[in-house]
UniProtKB/TrEMBL annotation:
GO terms for biological process: proteolysis. It holds the Pfam family Peptidase_S9. InterPro entries: AB_hydrolase_fold, Pept_S9A_N, Peptidase_S9_cat, Peptidase_S9A, Serine_Peptidase_S9A. The lineage of its organism: Bacteria, Bacillati, Actinomycetota, Actinomycetes, Micromonosporales. One of its GO terms (molecular function) is serine-type endopeptidase activity. Belongs to the peptidase S9A family. Keywords: Hydrolase, Protease, Serine protease. It comes from Micromonospora sediminimaris. This is Protease. Residues 481-696 form the Peptidase S9 prolyl oligopeptidase catalytic domain. Residues 8-417 form the Peptidase S9A N-terminal domain.
Length: 698
């Protein structure tokens, strides 16, 4: 402790909330006023307190940062992807925060991508966009759109310099290097070009930050002349826009959490009226991919884990089955190429790729050797191709890029991201680490998978420290991934575990459905069951176990802190959704109305209100013996507003003052935290240092 930096104490200003006859007093609601100097002063005081309480870790933070930096090839170049007559790639340069986006012309008879192992620019390179130049003078920088026109002449890109995900869209003429006068502020993610690159479609949001409009902009005209192509008035739905791989159609994707609708515009007739593929029906989700004379339809109409069908591209109508529904095998997406279809599937908690030749030949799954892995398609912009670019990783295998020959079924490793020796010269060898799957038994008898990775020889007698990570919402799956920063924990004897809890999508749509709405508590009890199992099975012990999660996973962190504080030695909650009920009760806030199909509508339904009130972390802070808690947030986050963790920490400190609670707010960032790679590494080093301190290994 330090006598120079006082413990922050937020002022209590009682504010009443009354719903369904229930009156609740919120003493810290005033922290939601972002432009109040008192709010900023409080956040700064919390940052000062966090810095004082972690000052003894400064040396360890530097060490951990250096371990990440030394193991990372700072000057690097991605595997180039072919589109038309160019190879497209991104470079990073040692000492620079952001990527440099480039292309190089394809040379005669060049059928495989040019590979740069040292990160040096390719001969003949054209720089399309340098993130470091764009970011100059700004504490935050993020790209929203990066979209090259079909003819390769124009680049549409958008930038955000505050973290609030409001982008300014610009167009660059790649033939001259000049920016066009076309500049559109206040845009969202997503753009689509017309076939002749004369028109650019883009998306804007409403006051609640919901993307609700698709616009058409004619290149070279004033933005005041832009035309609204579609406005979505139903507040449950978001809109998006994209160009099909075939470059024949512009798709307007309209979706809520439960229902979707797709409208199409011929890319050769960008002023045409959007045609509906199939009118929305409540509870029916579908997506569209163009393939020759047909539209492929991936859907859940009487198919819980989705099925694949098709309809005529000339006159969309009935859906003709192509792949029937198979319970337990979740069809996640379909990608169409001229002579093949590729379906991304999920079965037994693992991702896979299924290839369907067009016009004959048996469908087959691409096989991978590791029992735990993640595979998915990488960028594949070419419609007519005999090769498939895919990306593969596991808990011990660094990100790897392969080309798969769709005819011979031969897979060629193009590049695996290098892991360089650490500061001590130690070379990374995958065989020095082990990964495996274990299973916990939930309160209702459900088996919950856990993925684990640890250094070979780590004891299994309960003495090893462990980090358990979880998310469990929106059908998002926490598939195995490799992390350079995680090696710093593993090499210090820490086990890393991922709890694949209900609410995620690891085991299909039913796994998701059983962890949402009025079944949401399964997410939390599953996580606690995983934590208890790790201790019971000898992987670790409660006083050596730190839980970590972010966003909706931060809600998980807050919920399990209330539910089982004795199960953990520490909790890391990043941009945590801990004031969920107050947020979901306010339809004027970003995302609230669209979230009602995930959590329920507590405004209209007293049962939902009572259920959410029983688990939302802020509502349930009590005089418990909480583990140490580190909450991290960003002032400009539009997805989980900064005041949620600020209020949570303030109430924890008031109700259970004996605990050790820290709040760290990035004053120039958004939902993803710091935008530059070095800043991101420093944040990871900060978290890992705090975590190791919980284990007594700082």
């Amino acid at each position: 402790m330090t006598t120079e930096t006082p413990v922050p104490a937020a002022r209590r200003v009682p504010t009443e909330r009354v719903h369904h006859g229930d009156t609740v007093v919120d003493e810290y609601a005033w922290l939601a006023t972002k432009d109040d100097p008192e709010t900023i002063n409080y956040l700064n005081a919390e940052n000062a307190w966090t810095e004082a309480r972690t000052a003894h870790l400064s040396g360890l933070r530097t060490t951990l940062f250096e371990e990440i930096r030394r193991r990372t090839q700072e000057t690097d170049l991605s595997v180039p992807t072919r589109k038309g007559q160019h190879w497209y790639y991104t470079r990073t340069v040692e000492g620079q925060q952001y990527g440099v986006h480039c292309r190089r012309a394809v040379r005669p008879d060049e059928t495989t991508p040019p590979i740069s192992t040292d990160g040096a620019p390719l001969d003949g390179e054209q720089i399309l966009l340098d993130g470091n130049e764009l970011a100059k003078g700004h504490d935050f920088f993020s790209l929203g759109a990066f979209d090259v026109s079909p003819d390769g002449r124009y680049l549409a890109y958008s930038t955000d310099f505050s973290g609030d995900e409001r982008f300014t869209l610009r167009v660059k003429d790649l033939s001259t290097g000049e920016l066009l006068p076309d500049e559109i502020p206040g845009t969202f993610y997503g753009t689509a070009w017309s076939g002749d690159a004369s028109v650019l479609f883009y998306v804007t949001v409403d006051e609640a930050w919901r993307p609700n409009r698709v616009w058409r902009h004619v290149i070279g005209t004033a933005t005041t002349e832009d035309v609204v192509v579609h406005t979505e008035d139903d507040e449950r739905f978001w809109v998006g826009v994209e160009l099909t791989r075939s470059e024949r159609f512009v798709l307007i994707d309209i979706a809520s959490k439960l229902t979707s609708e797709v409208r199409v515009i011929p890319a050769g007739n960008p002023t045409g009226e959007p045609a509906v593929i199939a009118p929305r029906r409540q509870g029916v989700e579908y997506s569209v991919e163009h393939h020759g004379h047909r539209f492929l339809i991936l859907h859940n109409d009487d198919a819980e884990d989705f099925a694949l069908a098709y309809t005529s591209a000339d006159a969309p109508g009935d859906w003709v089955p192509l792949i029937e529904h198979s319970p337990g095998t979740r069809l996640e997406s379909v990608d169409a190429f001229a002579d093949h279809l590729v379906v991304t599937v999920r079965s037994n908690g693992l991702t896979g790729l299924r290839v369907l030749p067009v016009g004959g030949g048996d469908a087959h799954d691409i096989e991978f050797p590791e029992p735990l892995h993640t595979v998915g398609l990488d960028a594949n912009p070419e419609y007519r191709t005999g090769r498939l670019r895919l990306r593969y990783t596991s808990l011990v295998t660094p990100d790897s890029v392969y080309d798969y020959d769709l005819v011979t079924r031969e897979m060629t490793l193009l590049r695996q991201r290098p892991v360089l020796p650490g500061p001590d010269g130690q070379v990374y060898r995958p065989e020095d680490y082990e990964q495996q799957r274990d299973w916990a038994l939930a309160d209702d008898g459900t088996k919950v998978p856990i993925s684990l990775v640890y250094r070979r020889g780590t004891p299994r007698d309960g003495s090893a420290p462990c980090v358990i990570y979880g998310y469990g919402s929106y059908e998002a799956s926490m598939d195995p991934w490799f992390s350079v920063g995680r090696l710093s924990l593993l090499d210090r004897g820490v086990i890393f575990a991922v709890a694949h809890i209900r609410g995620g999508g690891e085991l299909g749509r039913r796994w998701y459905d059983h962890g949402k709405m009025l079944a949401k508590k399964n997410t939390f009890t599953d996580f606690v069951a995983c934590a208890r199992h790790l201790a019971k099975a000898g992987w670790t012990a409660p006083d050596r176990l730190v839980a970590r999660g972010g966003s909706a996973g931060g809600l998980l962190m807050g919920a399990v802190a209330n539910l089982a504080p004795d199960a953990f030695a520490g909790i890391v909650a990043q941009v945590p959704f801990v004031d969920a009920l107050n947020t979901i009760l306010d339809p004027s806030l970003p995302l609230t109305v669209t979230e009602w199909e995930e959590w329920g509508n507590p405004l209209a339904d007293p049962e939902v209100y009572a259920y959410m009130k029983s688990y939302t972390p802020y509502e349930n802070v009590a005089a418990l013996d909480y583990p140490a808690i580190l909450a991290m947030t960003s002032l400009n986050d539009t997805r989980v507003l900064y005041h949620e963790p600020a209020k949570w920490i303030a109430r924890l400190r008031a109700v259970a003052p004996q605990g050790d609670y820290l709040l760290k707010t990035e004053m120039e960032a958004g939902h993803g935290g710091p935008s530059g790679r070095y800043d991101a590494w420093r944040e990871e080093a900060f978290i890992n240092a705090w975590t190791l301190d919980r284990f007594g290994r700082a």
